[in-house]
């Protein structure tokens, strides 16, 4: 044992082990100190409740001023933004940052986007995400309009706000954070509530130049009066606008869509907005982002204030402004982001000229069911024609088509229009070519027999009901050829659409 302890190699190894243990202990102690310090600073940064257990009221915001106690990062970002907006920034760096948008939208599309001037009215959950997407995508002139300030409850849905921004005007918070992402973006901050009286000045041209009107306006207001006044003004002045309807109480992002204000449904804010606009003579022509999600048992709903809140005094004190909102609106933090990005996506594609074909603006389940019934009825007539007019052969006849197939054919393959005249109403689907032999398919015998039509998606064409009735009589049940009834242009269009249906059919 003595010889081992006196061995220089053993002594060296022991020293290394002890040193490593000491070093590891020191590192772990340092990390614990750092973690404790971070937690302490984070706790100190959160506004403390007052003695009576309620949050202190935020001071009224009357102007956008210097950042409160700007840190070194803020100073660096503002200095960089100042340089970039004065042309002292390599354009190649900007194009590299926008490279993915550049290859997607093309050179001309990105050029239009970079030259655009967009106004975002309402900078909360929806507006902040829309603004963030615009700045990151290349829009270089953005006007932000909002009278409100960041609160602790804003942080579950705001795109960029942090604890350090609590109490800061929302418009200033967005500029503060986004200049660190895109310093070349010029922000025009308007700390003001939108109303009809101020509409002219708030939606004026860039830097007062009335010839430089907004290329687009995003309505992200959650107050019905202000929303209606904004949309009415944009409609009358011919300003392109897209309006975000209610994200509150919604939870299914797959139900969010873009449609015309006149056709949106399953959305209380949309319904109320539409009703008031109709009274002002505006019934359509305004695209809106809305959700078709249905409310149901167990789902969140707009809640009234608890009775104890009324006992404390005027409920108007609970709103941001008098009579602004005094009900509790449950909001899942992800949904305003979805609404905001859908609105921004609409603006980006419209300004850049990128083609965008939306799904129909309202659910058309009943229409699909009616079309499916018509397909069934017309197929039965075709079968009877080949089976000597016997009615019994059609009893229990099935067609291998679903409402989902109907939806695809009508909305996607035929773009919601008749292939014959382009009319978008009273649409039906019907077999295009007259079969050369019976279309009846029999499997089994007796009570176990299954009867179906050999109809495929690629066999169908979209027409109005009147056109389909004529087509059935003259082509499918009559002696006329397609060339006798339709022009070469219509026939070629139908063939092209049927190829799309064939491709879909292979993967359904």
UniProtKB/TrEMBL annotation:
Membrane-related topology note: Multi-pass membrane protein
Segments of this protein annotated with the region Disordered: 39-78
InterPro entries to which the protein is assigned, alphabetical: ThiF/MoeB/HesA (IPR045886), ThiF_NAD_FAD-bd (IPR000594), Ubiquitin-activating_enz (IPR035985)
One GO CC term on file: mitochondrial outer membrane
UniProt-annotated location(s): Mitochondrion outer membrane
Annotated ranges, domain THIF-type NAD/FAD binding fold: 100-358
Positions with biased composition (Polar residues): 42-62
Pfam families per the UniProt record, alphabetical: ThiF
MF terms in GO: ATP binding; tRNA threonylcarbamoyladenosine dehydratase; ubiquitin-like modifier activating enzyme activity
One of the protein's GO biological processes: cyclic threonylcarbamoyladenosine biosynthetic process
Keywords: ATP-binding, Ligase, Membrane, Mitochondrion, Mitochondrion outer membrane, Nucleotide-binding, Transmembrane, Transmembrane helix
Similarity comment: family membership: Belongs to the HesA/MoeB/ThiF family.
Reported function: Catalyzes the ATP-dependent dehydration of threonylcarbamoyladenosine at position 37 (t(6)A37) to form cyclic t(6)A37 (ct(6)A37) in tRNAs that read codons beginning with adenine.
PANTHER family per the UniProt record, alphabetical: TRNA THREONYLCARBAMOYLADENOSINE DEHYDRATASE (PTHR43267), TRNA THREONYLCARBAMOYLADENOSINE DEHYDRATASE 1-RELATED (PTHR43267:SF2)
Name of the protein: THIF-type NAD/FAD binding fold domain-containing protein
Organism per entry: Corynascus novoguineensis
Taxonomic path: Eukaryota, Fungi, Dikarya, Ascomycota, Pezizomycotina
């Amino acid at each position: 044992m003595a010889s081992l302890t006196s061995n220089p190699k053993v002594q060296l190894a022991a020293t290394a082990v002890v040193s490593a243990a000491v070093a590891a202990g020191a590192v772990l102690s340092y990390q614990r100190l750092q973690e404790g310090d971070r937690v302490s600073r984070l706790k100190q940064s959160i506004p403390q409740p007052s003695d009576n257990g309620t949050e202190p009221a935020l001071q009224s915001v009357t102007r956008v001023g210097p950042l409160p106690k700007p840190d070194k990062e803020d100073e660096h970002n503002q200095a960089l933004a100042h340089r970039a907006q004065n042309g002292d920034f390599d354009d190649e760096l900007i194009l590299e940052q926008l490279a993915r948008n550049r290859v997607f939208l093309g050179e001309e599309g990105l050029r239009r986007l970079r030259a655009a001037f967009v106004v975002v009215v309402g900078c909360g959950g929806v507006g902040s995400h829309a603004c963030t997407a615009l700045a990151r995508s290349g829009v270089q002139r953005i006007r932000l309009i909002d009278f409100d300030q960041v609160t602790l409850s804003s942080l579950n849905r705001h795109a960029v706000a942090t604890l350090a921004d609590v109490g800061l005007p929302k418009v200033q918070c967005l500029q503060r954070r986004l200049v660190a992402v895109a310093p070349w973006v010029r922000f025009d901050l308007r700390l003001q509530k939108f109303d009809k009286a101020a509409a002219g000045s708030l939606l004026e041209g860039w830097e007062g130049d009335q010839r430089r009107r907004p290329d687009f306006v995003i309505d992200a207001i959650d107050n019905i009066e202000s929303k209606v006044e904004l949309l009415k003004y944009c409609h009358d002045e011919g300003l392109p606008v897209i309006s975000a309807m209610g994200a509150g109480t919604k939870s299914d992002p797959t139900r969010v869509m873009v449609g015309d204000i006149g056709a949106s449904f399953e959305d209380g804010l949309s319904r109320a907005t539409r009703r008031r606009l109709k009274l002002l003579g505006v019934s359509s022509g305004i695209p809106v982002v809305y959700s078709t999600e249905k409310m149901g048992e167990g789902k969140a709903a707009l809640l009234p204030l608890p009775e104890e809140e009324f006992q404390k005094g005027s409920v108007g004190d609970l709103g941001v402004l008098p009579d602004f909102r005094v009900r509790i609106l449950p909001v899942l933090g992800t949904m305003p982001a979805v609404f905001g990005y859908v609105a921004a996506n609409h603006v980006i594609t419209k300004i850049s000229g990128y083609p965008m074909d939306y799904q129909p603006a309202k659910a058309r389940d009943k229409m699909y069911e009616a079309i499916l019934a018509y397909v069934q009825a017309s197929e039965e007539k075709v079968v009877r024609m080949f089976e000597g007019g016997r009615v019994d052969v059609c009893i229990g006849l099935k067609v291998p088509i679903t409402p989902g197939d109907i939806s695809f054919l009508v909305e996607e393959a035929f773009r919601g229009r008749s292939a014959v005249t382009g009319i978008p109403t009273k649409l039906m689907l019907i077999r295009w070519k007259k079969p050369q032999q019976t279309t009846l398919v029999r499997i089994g015998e007796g009570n176990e027999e299954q009867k179906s039509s050999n109809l495929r998606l690629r066999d169908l064409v979209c027409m109005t009901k009147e056109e389909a009735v004529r087509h059935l009589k003259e082509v499918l049940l009559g002696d006329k050829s397609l060339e006798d009834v339709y022009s070469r242009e219509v026939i070629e269009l139908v063939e092209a659409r049927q190829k799309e249906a064939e491709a879909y059919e292979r993967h359904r």
